[in-house]
Amino acid sequence: MAAAALGIGIIVGLTGMGGGALMTPVLVLFFNVTPLAAVSSDLVSAAVMKPVGGFVHLRRGTVRLDLVKWLCLGSVPSAFCGVLVARALGDSSSVDDAVQKALGVALILAASGLFFRAYLRLAERARHGDASREPDPKELPENITIRKAPTIAVGVVGGLVVGMTSVGSGSLMIVALMLLYPTLRASELVGTDLVQAVPLVASAAIGHLIFGDFQLGITSALLVGSIPGAYIGAKLSTRLSGALIRRALAFVLLASALKLLGVDTALTAVLLLAVAVLAGPVWMLLRKRHGFPALPRHEAAVPAAQLEHVAA
C-alpha cells in the first residue's frame, strides 16, 4: 500500500490532482479493501496532506478567499452529510455496493473533467491570440463578480460526492470553477480549489471517523508513501510534461471506473482500446479548429496573425 501511495503521490505532485480518484480504487481493486473502508482511510490521510499545499498557495497569493468562503458554505456540511447518506443506504453489504457504484460514476466524471479542463485551456489560449500563454501575474487581478448561488451549489454537490466517494475535491470542483469563472488564471483555480478542499476534506474525514469504516493501518501506509511521493512529484513537475501525465491519469481513471461499475473485462478492454485509438485524432481536430497545428511541437511555426484571426 505504501508503494502504491508513493506512485500516486508522485502523480499528485506532478498534476495537482488524482489523489482520491486513484488511491481509493487501487485500495478496492488491488488490495481487496472494502469500498467504505477505502474511502474513509483515504479521506483521513488526505485531511493530513491538504493543508500543506494550501499553505503554499496562500503564501504565493494565488487564492481567491472570497470564493473559498462561498464554496465552503455549501461543501463543508454537504461533505459530512455524504457520510450519513452512505450509511443510510442500508446494511454493510449494500453500503459497500452503493459506494462502489458511486465511486465508479465519480471517476467517469473526473476523467471527463480532465478532458474539459484541457479543452477550456486550449480555447483560452486561442482567445489570447498566441500559441503561448502569458505567465500568471504576481498579484491577483481586479475583483471578480461572485456568483453566490451557483458557487454554493457547486460546493454542495462536490461536498456530497467527496463525502461518499473521496473523489472530486480536485478534478471535479476545479472544472466547475473554470465554467463559473472563466477569467480566473490557472494558478488561482488550483490555489482556490486546494484551500477550499482543506475544510471540505476535514469535514468528510470527521464524518468517516465517526460513522465510516476508518482503519488506522491503511491510513498510516498511505501517509508513509504519499508524503515523500508528493515531494518527489513536486520536484519533477518542472522537468516532465504535466499534459502527458494528465492524459495517462484520465485513462487510468476510466479503466478503474469501468471495473468498479462491474463492466465485463472484455468489454472494458474494447472500450479502452477505442478511447486510446480515437483520443489522439479527436484532440488534433480540436487543436486545428482553434487555429493551432495538430501537434504541439509545431506551435512555434504558427503566425500570431493566424491565431488572432481564429480568436476574432
Structure description:
It contains twelve helices and no strands. It has 312 residues and is mostly helical. It has one domain. The longest helix has 36 residues, at 92-127. The protein is globular and about 50 Å long. The N and C termini lie far apart (51 Å). Mean pLDDT is 78; it is low at 131-140.
Topology:
Layout: H1 2-15, H2 19-30, H3 35-60, H4 65-88, H5 92-127, H6 148-165, H7 171-180, H8 186-211, H9 216-236, H10 242-260, H11 265-289, H12 304-311
Can you count the helices?
12
The global form is globular
Give unreliable regions as ranges: 131-140
* Fraction in beta strands: under 5%
How many domains in all?
1
Biggest pleated-sheet summary: none
From the N-terminal CA to the C-terminal CA, the straight-line distance is 51 Å
Order of helices and strands: HHHHHHHHHHHH
Give me the secondary-structure category: mainly alpha
Radius of gyration: 20 Å
Give me a quick take on this structure.
This protein has helices at residues 2-15, 19-30, 35-60, 65-88, 92-127, 148-165, 171-180, 186-211, 216-236, 242-260, 265-289, 304-311. It has 312 residues and is mainly α.
What are the key terms here?
single chain, mainly alpha, 312 residues, globular
